[in-house]
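Homework help board

Subject: predicted structure for assignment chain

Our instructor gave us this sequence and asked us to write out the predicted structure in token form, then describe one feature. I got the tokens but I'm not sure how to describe them. Can anyone check?
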Amino acid sequence: MINRSLIRIKTVQILYSFLLTRKDFKLENAPADTDGSRERQFAYSVYLDLLILLLKLSSIQLGSGSGRTLETDPGLKKNRVGKALREDSAMTAIVMKNRDRLSKFDSCLDDILSAVTSSAVYTDYKRKRKLQMADDVAFWNTVFTTIIRKHKGVERVLRRDENFSHLGLDNGMKMFSQTLMSFDDTRATYLKARTDLDKSLSMAYDLYHALLMLPVYITRLQEARLDEAKNKYLPTEEDLNPSLRFVDNLYVKAVCECEALAEYVKENPDADPANWRDSDILFAALLDQITASTYYKEYMESAPGDFATDAAFWREVTRSIIVPSDELAEALETKAVYWNDDLAIMSTFALKTMRRSYAAADGDSADDAPQGCDGKIVLLPKFMNAADEAFGTELFEFVVEHREEYRSLIDSFIDTTQWDTERLAFMDIVILLTAIAEIVHYPSIPVPVTLNEYIEIANDYSTPRSGSFVNGILYSVVKKLAADGVIDKQL
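My token output:
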């Protein structure tokens, strides 16, 4: 079963990768005041005008005092570049700072739009059925470099600038084109991150099944060794008549007979340890450690035929030998990047499954021992309920949607005498963003639970000082949110 603790860890890990590499538009900075080049100043002026013109042609609302808003051709409404550009925080700042430019091309907007929609470029664009963001970007780049650049009305407006020069115009156009082409399809990146989150959680569930399957392969290897010993040149009495206590283990037999487990590993090859690289080396190393242990010695001396004893043996061996082994850690690291992180949690559920399998047979009335589970392997579900299944995806979406709002909240409580906001560990920021999203959007989760979970993640995945930093910021954030009525829960 994948619990919320693991879901939180996975969500933070995927958010870290996504937010670290996420790009919108690479907007150019204004030339420094010390740059007295008229050409450079004019090029940047052209650059700003073209950005705003693209928003105008996309029918993007720019607020009061922004001049005319065009009713764009339906085909252009499908194009997502204008909306993406307007949603860029840096572009928002540019619009606010340059409101005097917003109506600059209003006198020739209709003519410009007509030139665009009557072009062969637009005709070809409309014919495409499945438009990707890359198609939208390429369309506008072609329109501006081939149509807008040559449009007489555009040049006439730009010539009103006393710094006008054709070289400056060309350089401004190049800057504009570079900004367009720098756009990374954040939607595609977002969807990939969402897919990676789902895949990561599924692989954690694969690991749970793999841990249950390991005793089967270790037992088969021991059986093969016993057969080989019988056929060696001078077999001993023990070789010819070995104890079959280990290979006849009733728990392993039950695992082999578990149809749900067999079906799962068949459909999910990563859940089958036999498919891992150098699996034979892993099985041999684990078997050697097991047969050299006191658990093995005591087990081999016990009376055969008791399912509870057989299952308890493998539970203890898994807990004390298999899970902590360096060989398993190495195998997991080569198979999946997050599996060593998942091991601590998923092994507890594998051990719980083993315990449930023999609790009833042992006469144990434990709460986690379901009726009729004696001698049966009862697999835990992937998620406890639908709410847990949706938790990671929702949390991811809340962070992405509100990241700027939450980042401002975080920054407002950073003591700049102790912490440099520009040098904070980015993992700390991601942990804080995720914690705040949980505090705000999940009223049923107590604040202490959220704080404890994310402080623990900070201690495990960030810097030595991260736990105390996250604790201090979240404490202040919760008080602020409660005082403002945003949340109805206290520390």
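Reply (TA_rk): Your tokens look well-formed. For the description, you could write something like this. The chain has a mean pLDDT of 89. That's the kind of observation they're looking for.
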